From TrEMBL:
Source species: Flavobacterium saccharophilum
Name of protein: Beta-glucuronidase
Single GO molecular function: beta-glucuronidase activity
Biological processes per GO annotation: carbohydrate metabolic process; glucuronoside catabolic process
Swiss-Prot/TrEMBL keywords: Glycosidase, Hydrolase, Signal
Length: 609
């Protein structure tokens, strides 16, 4: 945790005012004004609004030209040349990707400018921040023509202070979004999901006092079921006002502490008679933090999660993770964001019999995490270190680490999160080993209370054994691997003859298995793409999986069909990965019921033990 605080402080002091600033957490419970809704946009493939005709960056000029789109300029007389006009440009809903909203932009990867005007009456002494839930992939953000900063990474939040820039009337927030893929980015150019461009999560104004609670961690201490511990961090600490109170009325906790000159309070609070959070009892306590006359509320669950030899223990008891993998997509074939989107996905997971979800392959929106917390679904959260990022490049590592830090900062108070995942199917090499090991160390320094894993690749030998032979396993709490028997290789008939071995006496999760089926397409069980093939694939894979030593959970690939530019077979895939147990239009396939049955048996078995 110390490292998290240092990182936060460093970011503030190096960049100073109005650069990428330390992240404010628990935004849903603050004094906010939404900037969601209808925005204007300009598609700008040549970045005409950003560069002069000699390719000089306008935002590096001492007084940027009116031609710079972030100036949102309007001609003052009939003679003046101005070649853009946000107010006459088309409109789009924010949050929302352009792929699913603008048919002509379905395949567009490049620059689009967005503008929202607003009024804001900020009283003297108060502070104002603009918080962006996620923008894919690169965002240059300007308010009233002033640059607030640049952010990269498509799935994590960031914020800027705008106290001295915002006005009572006619503010214009302009954001240049670029979703061009690059080899050195995280993720890299090659993925199996749609590169949805745009402002894909909420845009929010946060109003705060001069000095306020910016972030905190309130969770059970590692391996201690009766000690709540963590920190409170004050933004712009006020030396004469350093008292912080944490109350959890139902636990009769009324803790008073003082922040130091650095604005940080570290605390430990003994707690008795906690009703522990679990899938059967997703108990969240009302928690209030009081500081300098301000109250910040949250709903927090308490549970322990640990491993003991080859078992995962939730609140001290072995648990089997009945899971499913999920991409962040909504019913319209766009990026999901709302609570309604979250309920659609998580209710299906519940119906399948899940107590756990793998939110692949990047940090999902805060609504789904908070909904899982309320519903009692344990969560695997992941960063997009997917396939082959540039493991030797320091800036690529830093990018991955920044995404991880933001995800942990946002979600560390959610009991539902039990696993931080470092990577997916990354090819074995020395630089990759060093890269992931560093991410593991970093994660532990931020949060040592959760388990760490990564979805690994496997090998098979001639004797019919599947092996997990990846030295990074030394650093993981859980050995997770993806395997595709009967889809990318191997015969389904051989399922019962295949055995798995691992040198680790640690819990094992099959983080992916599956195959495609076009919902409504029927045929023989050996006919690819039919529901019968997928059903048979699940039956056979489960026979094999049952015998895997140390098996502690599964997250088959995947709950719902999802868009992918790699999946082009006409009439079958039509740009969708069809490995869903449910079609993108919401119809269950036969394999759904195989998995549902298996989980129902598993649950009964567990309840008997
Ligand atoms: C995988 C990847 C996942 C793909 C899936 C597939 O192993 O982790 O992102 O979508 O296979 O369908 O090939």
């Amino acid at each position: 945790m110390k490292k998290l605080l240092t990182a936060i402080l460093l970011t503030t002091s190096i960049f100073g005012f109005a650069q990428n600033q330390s992240l404010i957490s628990n935004v849903p419970n603050r004094n906010t004004t939404s900037l969601n809704g209808v925005w204007n946009y300009i598609v700008d493939p040549y970045e005409t609004g950003y560069y002069s005709f000699h390719h000089d960056e306008y935002d590096k000029q001492a007084k940027p030209s009116n031609a710079a789109y972030f100036n949102n300029y309007h001609a003052v007389n009939k003679q003046e040349l101005v070649e853009y006009d946000f107010d006459k440009s088309p409109k789009i809903n924010i949050p929302g990707d352009w792929t699913s909203q603008v048919p002509e932009l379905k395949y567009y990867e490049g620059n689009v400018w967005f503008k929202k005007s607003f009024d804001y009456n900020l009283k003297a002494g108060k502070r104002l921040f603009v918080y962006l839930g996620a923008i894919n992939y690169k965002a240059d953000v300007y308010l009233n023509g002033k640059k607030l900063g640049t952010h990269i990474g498509g799935f994590t939040p960031f914020n800027y202070e705008v106290t001295s820039i915002a006005k009572a009337k006619d503010n214009y927030l302009v954001i240049k979004v670029d979703n061009t893929r690059h080899k050195e980015d995280v993720p890299t150019i090659n993925t199996d999901w749609w590169n949805y461009g745009g402002i894909t999560r909420d845009v929010t104004l946060i109003e705060e006092e001069a000095s306020f609670v910016e972030d905190y961690n309130i969770q059970l201490k590692k391996n201690n079921a009766t000690l709540i511990s963590g920190f409170v961090k004050i933004n712009n600490p006020n030396v004469s006002q350093n008292a912080v109170t944490i109350t959890i009325p139902e636990l009769k906790i009324n803790y008073k502490g003082k922040v130091g000159a650095d604005g940080i309070l570290n605390f430990e609070i003994p707690a008795k008679k906690i009703s522990y959070w679990s899938p059967e009892n997703p108990k969240l306590y009302d928690v209030t933090l009081e500081y300098n006359g301000q109250k910040l509320k949250d709903n927090i669950g308490f549970r322990t999660i640990e491993t003991k030899e080859d078992q995962i223990l939730l609140n001290g008891k072995p648990i089997f993770l009945r899971g499913i993998s999920i991409h962040e997509e909504n019913a319209k074939g766009g990026r999901a964001n709302s609570e309604e989107d979250a309920l659609r996905l998580l209710n299906w997971a519940k119906e399948l019999g899940c107590n756990y979800v793998r939110l692949a392959h990047y940090p999902h929106n805060e609504n789904i995490i908070r909904t899982a917390d309320k519903m009692g679904l344990m969560v695997w959260e992941e960063i997009p270190v997917y396939w082959t990022v540039e493991f030797t490049r320091q800036a690529t590592y830093q990018n991955a680490e920044d995404q991880l830090t933001a995800a942990v900062t946002r979600d560390k108070n959610r009991a539902c999160i039990i696993i931080w995942s470092m990577a997916n199917e990354t090819p074995i090499s020395d630089p990759r080993y060093a890269f992931i090991k560093k991410l593991v160390d970093h994660t532990k320094s931020l949060d040592n209370t959760r388990l760490i894993s990564a979805a690994l690749l496997t090998q098979s030998d001639s004797a019919g054994f599947g092996t997990i032979n990846d030295a990074i396993g030394d650093y993981l709490d859980i050995i997770s691997f993806n395997q595709y028997l009967g889809w990318y290789g191997g015969k389904l008939e051989d399922a019962e003859k295949i055995f798995w071995k691992t040198k680790y006496n640690k819990p094992v999760i099959v983080s992916e298995f599956g195959g495609d089926a076009k919902q409504g397409l029927h045929g023989e069980k050996n006919e690819r793409w039919t529901e019968e093939y997928q059903e048979y694939l699940y039956i056979q894979n489960l026979k094999m999986i049952e015998k895997i030593p140390h098996l502690s959970g599964l997250s088959p690939w995947i709950l719902v069909d999802f868009r992918s530019p790699r999946r082009l077979l006409p009439g079958i895939q039509d740009e969708y990965n069809r490995k869903g147990l449910i079609s993108n239009d919401g119809n269950k396939k036969k394999a759904f019921y195989i998995m549902q049955n298996w989980y129902s048996k598993k649950e009964k078995e567990q309840n008997q033990n």
